[in-house]
Amino acid sequence: MTEGSQDVFGYLDEKEAGYLEELKEYLRIPSVSTDPEYKDEVLRCSEFLLEKLRTAGLEAEAIETDGNPLIYAEWMKAEGKPTVLFYGHYDVQPADPFEERRNPPC
User: How far apart are CA 51 and CA 96, in angstroms?
Assistant: First the structure.
């Protein structure tokens, strides 16, 4: 392992508890995109993501659509380096039908 790799792993070990708490906070937002009753939660989740992305140093924006906003972020300060794309859903599917679940939703 290189010295740089050790630095990264040491940093992650040091920050692990905080990152896990942020992830749990994110996962607790019931951003159910298919149910209009959760529209405010989807918007709250989009704001959560914007804040986290901006805090991480990315330029981030919400792009309005006919449905829920698209969250886009970029960091273009590594000229000549490869592009990496992360894609993730911040809107989730409903927890029901509950009778078909093996475990309750968190």
Answer: 30
